[in-house]
Every structure is written in structure tokens, then in C-alpha cells.
Amino acid sequence: MEEEGALVLYSGGQDSATCLAWALERYGHVETIGFDYGQRHRIELDCRTDLVSRLRAQFPAWSEKLGEDHVVRLDALGQISQTALTSDMEFRLAEDGLPNSFVPGRNLIFLAFAAALAYRRGLKRIVTGVCETDYSGYPDCRDDTIKAMQVALSLGLDRRLVLETPLMWRDKAQTWALAQELGGEALVELIRLRSHSCYVGDRTLEHVWGHGCGACPACELRSAGWEKWRSRPHLTTEP
Ligand code: ZN
Hints:
- The protein has 8 helices and 7 strands, in the order βαβααβααβαβαββα.
- The protein is α/β, with parallel strands linked by helices.
- It has one domain (about 1-230): Rossmann fold.
- The longest helix is centred in the C-terminal third of the chain and has 23 residues, at about 170-195.
- The structure holds zinc ion.
- Zinc ion binds next to helix 8.
- Zinc ion (ZN) binds near residues 198, 212 and 213.
């Protein structure tokens, strides 16, 4: 088991791109995993490859530590969910306050697959960008959920796995501040222009905070975080 090895759940969004940089700054060997489950914003999958190749070019020291990227197909997830992310339904909030894009337990499924892969690759740590601070109502992003999952996976695999969540107590503004701290303005620009958050997959409109429709909850969160960070440039990155 490689003590210094980490597997990052990397989707191509702002949060996971920041987590990738965070892991590359800390660990000697980093691999990435992404999931293709027929999400409507498939553009996210194209962005993730593009962002990594640019990251490699701009940060040679990180590039040396960055190993394989694993894309796992999870078609069954789309089959089960029939939600806004995988069909042509309009994005909206459901009666329980969760976005109708919510795929129940999605992060738990992702973590289970990531753990199986980490086991096979001999990687001890799994890094995920889940966040309880502005978690959009996803209960599987909560700190207690992740802690319980770490125990379940370590027991179930009979191997100590560590789930790391650098963004758990950071809001979106602090996530930008963290990117700045890790890779300066170059990393901020890379994430701003190349990462994708928009739920409806829009990349035709460019805003100061990046690309997106500007109206969906993901765009609103990203835009508000950017504005808050820009108005408070010395915001601490401490959660
Ligand atoms: Zn959007």
C-alpha cells in the first residue's frame, strides 16, 4: 500500500480541479477517476481531459506526480435515476428541496467504485471535493456520511483507506482562495476558464467567473463564490 498514493475523484468541475491540485501538492503519486453515467452535461467529461493536459503543461512538478486517469462507465446510474442530469427534463427544485438532478446516493456509489480501484492500484487515500458548507442539499456530501463511508470501506476491503475532503468546510470563495494559494493566478485562470460546473452544460457564455448558463444553481453558486472572493482577496483558506 503506497502511503503517498492518492486517487482523486475528478469530474472536471471547480471543486474537483482544486482538489486535484491540493493532492498534487501533498502526495508523491496521484491518479484520477471520473465517471461516465450518461450525464446530460457530457461537456464536463471533455473539460476534464482538456484541463488536465493544460495543468500538465503549466505545472511540470505536478505533472511528474500525476499518473493514470481512469474513466469508469456507470450507465446503470442513468438507467435508475431518470433525473434532470440524464434526461431532457427542466432543471428545478423538487418538493424536498433537493434539485431534481439529484441521483440518490450518487457519491456513495462513486466512492465505492473509487475504493475498489484504489485497492487494485495500491492507493491509500481517496480525495473528494464534497462540501457540507454549500452542499446544495445533497445528504451524501455531508461530513458524517463520508466518515461513515470511510469506516465501511476500510472494513469491507479489510484495508485502511483514508477519505480526504479538503473542501468540506470551505465555501466556494474559499475554494478559489485555495486554488490561488496552491497554484497562484495561473491555476485560478486555468480553473476559471477550463473547469465546468453548469448543470445545463452551457459553455457558450463566458462570465468573469467562467463559462455557464448563469442561471442554474451551480452557476449561481460559482458566480456568488467568485464575487465574494474577488471582493475579499485576502480571504483565509482555513476552513
Ligand atoms: Zn448553469
